[in-house]
Amino acid sequence: MKNENQVSRREFIKNSAGVAVALSIPTFIPASAFGANDRVQVAVLGINGRGQNHISGFSNLKNVDVACLCDPDNEVLQTRAKEFNEKAGKKVKTEQDLRKVIDDKSIDVISIAMPNHWHALATIWSCQAGKDVYVEKPGSHNFHEGRKMIEATKKYNRIVQHGVQLRSSEALQEAVKHLRDGLIGNVYMARGLVYKWRPDIGNKGTEPVPAGLNYDLWTGPAEMRPFSKNYVHYNWHWNWNYGNGDIGNQGIHETDMCMWGLGVDTFPEKITSAGGKFLWDDCQETPELLSSTYIYPKEKKIIEFEVRPWMTNREDGVDIGNIFYGSEGYMVVKGYDFYETFLGRDRKPGPTRKAGGDHYKNFIDAVVSRDASKLNGPVETAHLSSGLAHLGNIAYRTGRALTFDPKTEKFVNDKEANALLTRKYRAPYMMPETV
Fold first, then answer.
1. pLDDT tens column, 232-261
2. Per the database record, which ranges form the Gfo/Idh/MocA-like oxidoreductase N-terminal domain (predicted)?
3. Which of 51, 175, 307, 344 has the smallest number of Cβ neighbours within 10 A?
4. All structural domains of the chain
5. Rounded to whole angstroms, what are the CA distances from 385 to 192, 263, 290?
6. What share of the chain is helix, strand, coil (3-state, %, to 5)?
């Protein structure tokens, strides 16, 4: 007999009184639902790491209530709830099972900060249940999931924001306008840089599941493996079963900035990647160092992306950011809110600016108005920026240069590479074939 944690969301809904039709008839929220005296009710899924920023980001908005916190680790859940209750002066609802949260009719928005392997499925389930979604980067754990996210967003008419907050930076919006207006001439190349301090993570082996952790829910659609502190709670990033390495972690901000700045809204046709593990004899599966090249022959543009893990120089002061090269100069983007330009052969300083923005507010404004066109990081960015990282990882894992067809979103005559565009899902946490 199945226990509750082995029941799929579909079965869970069918067995719950009053909500049997939730999958087929989403609870669409009319524009009039949010009036001057109404507040958007947000639930945050995954609150050990990045989810803490989701909690504070939504809590800072005057027309939003963080109504529910959800995490499969009850120790983390109760710790965050205690912190929240003391700060807010009111009690927040807690829940370990995301399915119950998604099907709670009092919740308007699902904010997802779970590990990468959960992002797409939680987004699709939320759309099916009539919720709007803020999903942390990368939007998908594998390439195929990104297209499914777009399909679900459109089918259920939801507002879905991808957590690439640099798109809400006033400075970087201005920077992209400069690129479009020809400040540095014909922009032909972008570099994405992730030079981030990554230490030896060792190898902690396996052990019994800690009390309070629902490990079945934590694992979700991924392959079930014996519990290890090697990946619960942070170092899952470096295991292919759950994460995507640093190009699919910090690097999504930079892959997104590369594509945004170059003005490309499709995938490259030629991809090469090389790298590996050169420093640590630890349990990390993803490469410590990775250099990827993405070529757009029709557009005559190229993206270079580099991950470095340890002691390194900076490039024009950049360790996390981007550099754009044009026929008349170049532009440096540092972090999420600063750019500077250098013009001509003598690299004369040009326009520069530092200014941030509020990605959470941008999302809530779109939710309240029911206007997805207001989104700075719409669901398409989740597929593009995450997809670019996935393509680079696939080139690394196959060990050869790859040819990709952006129209079919398949590799050309390469069965091994195409198999890596998706994954095998674990029942009952299955990716729907038709959303």
1. 999 999 999 999 999 999 999 999 999 999
2. 41-163
3. 344
4. 4-163+361-374 (3.40.50.720), 167-200+241-356+387-413 (3.30.360.10)
5. 12, 13, 17
6. 35, 20, 45
